[in-house]
UniProtKB/TrEMBL annotation:
Subcellular location: Cytoplasm
Protein family: Belongs to the aromatic-ring hydroxylase family. TetX subfamily.
Name used for this protein in its record: Flavin-dependent monooxygenase
Species this protein is from: Streptomyces chattanoogensis
Enzyme Commission numbers on file: 1.14.13.-
Lineage: Bacteria, Bacillati, Actinomycetota, Actinomycetes, Kitasatosporales
GO molecular function: FAD binding; monooxygenase activity
């Protein structure tokens, strides 16, 4: 008998799982705490790798839809040091292959949502906990007081997963870096000079203890990430930046970059009133858990790693591989989970180790020179 499958979280991993299951004729329900698909902005760009997110979309039968939303020019990159010196510039030819094209998170989510039957995603369902049932499976409890039963529960609910405690006591821990996300809307119209400076893709500047990255989005917004390296877990609350007052926060952040070239403070000053503090946390590299009937995890819920371009790709592969395992073992969910988790643990550990190495390099006191050496080594 086909198990009743409940997926908690409508991110890239959870939706990929639902889509690949649908391709193989297996129903699932996705429970999402957001009230609708347009309830909040979905974040910045993703570079989908050929062996990562693109492979998952092939399993989902969505290659044409991916090509339609892919932005090859998003692979453009400019690397500078904090004095404003350009150390490396890579511009993507018009005929470049789609090795790691950028896609808007929102566009990717729309493609995945549109590929699912009506009613697959149940909006406004904030998962709180699950209780094992005597006959097997779990009863899910939601914040609105409702419940739902399932035979297989998949936690695709991100860094602060509420499904994870059913499997492990592991919790995300701070890794000494703190981010502030901000941005400039409609930059080509409002600040054409800054738009030309940033270019079509990624614009990165590194100093010994701070970095600034600007990322062009398909909707005309440039997202800016200000990273403060080797700072304590409570830094965002003790640094004196009044995030509740955007005008003063903008001034305080500008002051923190006052010793950098003026082009960087110009980017900060041009930001709108959205300033989001983000402490960077990870799960232990190589996290595993004992096989547990009827429950598993994918993506950040399973192997939260530093933001180094791997997370969404791994989550989507997780979703596709779990769906394929369930399709291969239609009458034996336990066997499907064993096959999936064995490969997922290895895949997640390798990606987390690589992400940790990249983060260590990118937060080196050598600043931009360390990052330059990384890119020169990759392209050598």
């Amino acid at each position: 008998m086909t198990p009743r499958i409940a997926i908690v979280g409508a991110g890239p991993g959870g939706l990929t799982l639902a889509r690949v299951l649908h391709v193989h004729g297996i129903d699932a329900v996705v429970y999402e705490r957001e009230s609708s698909r347009t309830a909040r902005p979905q974040g910045g760009m993703l570079d989908l790798h050929t062996d990562g997110g693109q492979r998952a979309l092939q399993a989902a039968g969505l290659e044409a839809e991916f090509i339609a939303i892919a932005r090859p020019e998003g692979q453009d990159m400019r690397l500078l040091d904090h004095t404003g010196t350009v150390l490396l510039q890579e511009d993507t030819p018009d005929d470049a292959p789609l090795d790691r094209p950028e896609v808007d998170r929102a566009d990717l989510r729309e493609v995945l949502l549109d590929s699912l039957p009506e009613g697959t995603v149940v909006w406004g369902k904030a998962f709180r906990t699950a209780v094992a049932l005597p006959e097997g499976g779990h009863r899910l409890h939601f914040a609105d007081g409702t419940t739902a039963d399932c035979d297989l529960l998949v936690g695709a609910d991100g860094a602060r997963s509420r499904v994870r405690p059913l499997l492990t006591d592991a919790r995300p821990h701070h890794i000494g870096n703190n981010l502030v996300e901000c941005g400039i809307p409609d930059i080509d119209r409002t600040h054409p000079d800054l738009a030309a400076m940033v270019g079509r893709g990624n614009y990165w500047a590194y100093g010994p203890d701070r970095s600034l990255s600007a990322q062009r989005n398909g909707d005309g917004r440039v997202r800016i990430y200000l990273s403060f390296h080797h700072t304590p877990e409570d830094w965002l609350s003790t640094c004196g930046i009044p995030f509740e007052d955007p005008a003063r926060a903008r001034t305080a952040l500008t002051d923190l970059f006052a010793d950098w070239a003026p082009q960087f403070t110009a980017l900060i000053q041009a930001c709108d009133d959205t300033f989001v503090p983000r402490p960077i946390t990870t799960l232990p590299v190589g996290l595993t858990w004992p096989a547990t009937p009827g429950v598993t995890l994918l993506g950040d819920a399973a192997h939260l790693m530093p933001p180094a371009g791997q997370g969404a790709n791994v989550a989507m592969v997780d979703g596709a591989e779990l769906a394929l395992a369930l399709a291969a073992h239609p009458d034996d969910a336990a066997a499907a989970l064993r096959a999936y988790e064995s490969a997922m643990f290895e895949r997640g550990a390798a990606a987390a180790e690589q992400s940790a190495r990249i983060l260590e390099l990118f937060t080196s006191p050598r600043g931009a020179q360390a990052v330059l050496g990384f890119f020169q080594g990759v392209s050598a």
